[in-house]
Each structure stands twice: as C-alpha cells, then as structure tokens.
Amino acid sequence: QVQVKESGGGLVQPGGSLTLACTISGFTFNPYYTRWYRQAPGKARDLVASISSPAGSTDYADSVKGRFTISRDRNKNTVYLQMSGLKPEDTAVYYCNEGTSWGQGTQVTVSS
C-alpha cells in the first residue's frame, strides 16, 4: 500500500516562491503517475501537475504553466512542486496523489 505525505506549505507574498514535497512510501508498478492537486475553499479539487514513471513526462494546468515545475527524486522517493510567481489565486490546500493514495494536504496561502 502506497502512502504519500505532503510538506512545505506556508504563507508567501505575491510574486514569491515555495517548494512543496511529496514523500512516498511503498511500491507502485510502472507505469504510473504522481500528481499534485489543489483545492481552494468552496471549489472543486483541480489537477495542477503530473509526472509519469518511468518516463518522467510532465504536464501542467494552463493556469500554472511557466510558473510551476514538478520533478521526482527517486533516491529520496520524493516528488516536488516548485512554485514561483505565486498569485493570490494560487491559495489552496495542495494534495499529492499516486494511484489511489492521497495525502492530508498542505496549505499554501499567497497574501501580502
């Protein structure tokens, strides 16, 4: 059973940067995807970015293209979401997903 845990959220000013980490335990057979989602208050949970294994192909929501980067460190069993040029509308709880496993989420707040 795969388990995922997010970390790295916090409060950041508009235009700032933040890196989220998703630590993964357990084993998933290839091929598979690890995804970052986010959910703002009163809104649906939306897909932000995904990375495939073993190819490492990435995909992004239009709203974050050019600002967010998803990457995987296999040695650390961790998937990162590097976020820059943050906007108030990026404020949400960010969730990591792999297969049927979800983390508890980490809050990102973009505010001056």
The span between the termini is: 40 Å
The SSE string, one letter per element, is EEEEEEEEEEE
- β-strand amount: over 45%
Radius of gyration: 13 Å
Textual characterization of the structure:
The protein has no helices and 11 strands. It has 112 residues and is mainly β. Strands 2, 4, 5, 6, 9, 10 and 11 form a 7-stranded mixed beta sheet that branches. β7 and β8 form a beta hairpin. The radius of gyration is 13 Å and the shape is globular.
Write the layout of secondary structure elements.
Blueprint: E1 3-7, E2 10-12, E3 18-25, E4 32-39, E5 45-53, E6 58-60, E7 68-73, E8 78-83, E9 92-98, E10 101-102, E11 106-110
Parallel strand pairs: 2-11
Antiparallel strand pairs: 1-3, 3-8, 4-5, 4-9, 5-6, 7-8, 9-10, 9-11
Keywords:
112 residues; mainly beta; seven-stranded mixed sheet; four-stranded antiparallel sheet
Summarize the structure.
This protein has no helices and 11 strands. It has strands spanning 3-7, 10-12, 18-25, 32-39, 45-53, 58-60, 68-73, 78-83, 92-98, 101-102, 106-110.
